[in-house]
């Protein structure tokens, strides 16, 4: 029988799973790379660099924002997006902790 996890650990695991799910699509990885190459971008600027429709990029950005990996800011008539570097670093640290706990001595 699996013992019940404390609520805080469950919340941390859910947050990590949400972020990893957001990273599970190649287009979202490419969007993060594009955002990382500049301070911030509009959806249009991302579309101009990727072979994707504006509606597709918008949907992927929405998923990245909901997962907390990308910050959104309204800028007059355009929306601006930027990578949340601390959130991405948190994913890296959580994944490292998971690997280390599953594979001690690696």
Automatic annotation (TrEMBL):
The keyword Thylakoid does not apply. The keyword DNA-binding applies. Gene3D superfamilies: Winged helix-like DNA-binding domain superfamily/Winged helix DNA-binding domain. Residues 8-103 form the HTH arsR-type domain. SMART domains: HTH_ARSR. Keywords: DNA-binding, Transcription, Transcription regulation. It comes from the Bacteria. InterPro entries: ArsR-like_HTH (IPR011991), HTH_ArsR_DNA-bd_dom (IPR001845), HTH_MetalResp_TranReg (IPR051081), WH-like_DNA-bd_sf (IPR036388), WH_DNA-bd_sf (IPR036390). This is Metalloregulator ArsR/SmtB family transcription factor. It comes from Mesorhizobium australafricanum. The lineage of its organism: Bacteria, Pseudomonadati, Pseudomonadota, Alphaproteobacteria, Hyphomicrobiales.
């Amino acid at each position: 029988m699996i013992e019940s996890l404390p609520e805080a650990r469950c919340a941390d695991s859910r947050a990590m799973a949400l972020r990893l799910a957001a990273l599970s699509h190649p287009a979202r990885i490419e969007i993060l790379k594009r955002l990382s190459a500049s301070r911030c971008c509009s959806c249009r600027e991302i579309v101009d660099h990727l072979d994707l429709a504006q509606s597709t990029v918008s949907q992927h950005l929405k998923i990245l924002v909901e997962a907390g990996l990308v910050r959104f800011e309204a800028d007059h008539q355009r929306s601006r997006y930027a990578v949340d570097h601390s959130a991405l670093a948190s994913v890296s640290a959580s994944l490292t902790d998971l690997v280390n706990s599953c594979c001690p001595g690696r």
